[in-house]
Amino acid sequence: MKLRAIRLAEVRRFAEPVVVEGLGDGINVLAAPNEDGKTTIFEAVRTVLGEKYSAGGQKIRRLAPYAGGAPLIEIDFELDERLYRLRKRYLKGKDALLQDLSSGRDVARKDDVEAWLASHIATRAPLELVWLAQGRSLEEPFALRGASEAERKRHGAQGARMRAIIEAEVEAVSGGETFERMRRRVVESLDELVTKRGQPRGRYLAALKRLAACQRQLADAKERATRASDTLARLEDIAAELRALESGEEAARLEARHQAAKQAHQEAQARLAALVAAGQVGDPRAAKDLLGILVQARRAREADTMEVATWSLLALDSPVARRA
User: Fold this and answer.
1) Which of 24, 87, 211, 306 is found 20 to 30 A from 322 (Cα to Cα)?
2) What burial class does residue 93 get, using C-beta atoms within 10 Å of its C-beta: 0-12 exposed, 13-18 middle, 19+ buried?
3) How far is CA 304 from CA 32, 262, 297, 300, 308, in A?
4) Is residue 323 over pLDDT 90?
């Protein structure tokens, strides 16, 4: 079995969803400062594999954030060259779902999920053998639970000797000249990087200044890239207009508009002549209607003429016109 992704929501400090993806073959290191939730993530994986979705009790309730919630744990894992997704929700809205991502089908739900895990994934004892939680290395192994009193005493004596050896080694390092020499080296190295008030200096200060300079250069480069992108977009629009002009289709369209405007102007003049001949030019309403028609026709013709002139100027500067 190989873990490929871990997703949590409403689990202890992670009231909001958190995702750990991209887990590959070999060693994967999850690094973060203390109290950032690394142990919570590992405990969540142990829970989703070892605790039924219907489980309750204090252990499961401790998974919920202080403000309350229903812990949701989801993992992606490979088993027998297939990729699966296991999702369990505890406490409120209890549910379990197992999906085969390789085929896109649901494998099991609720109690059937637990049965599948029992038959395909290692049981609790092997899981503790290969997954040793923090602080559990010297605890009584699961295999000894229920063992005879003699076996338990023998293991207890071995564990006591191991603890004594470790304590002696720690005391030898921390209480002697070796520890003092290590402490002085740490203080000297730290003194090269920060002042007694914690202000950066030396190589640390130089690195911070280089970082600030790089950030300014990056911001300037992004601004120049944005301006260049806007300029390129404008040039592409102009190039498209020139291609349309050189194709002749745009010129034909403008000529058709020009002729339509010219015809509208001529029709307005003809109507004026007809009104004059009929003696209606003195009628205020007729004069107002006629004035509106003449103004619209004139504006349409002037606007069309200006557009034709603009395209003509563009055409004079186009490669086709220069070749001509």
Assistant:
1) 306
2) exposed
3) 69, 9, 11, 6, 6
4) no
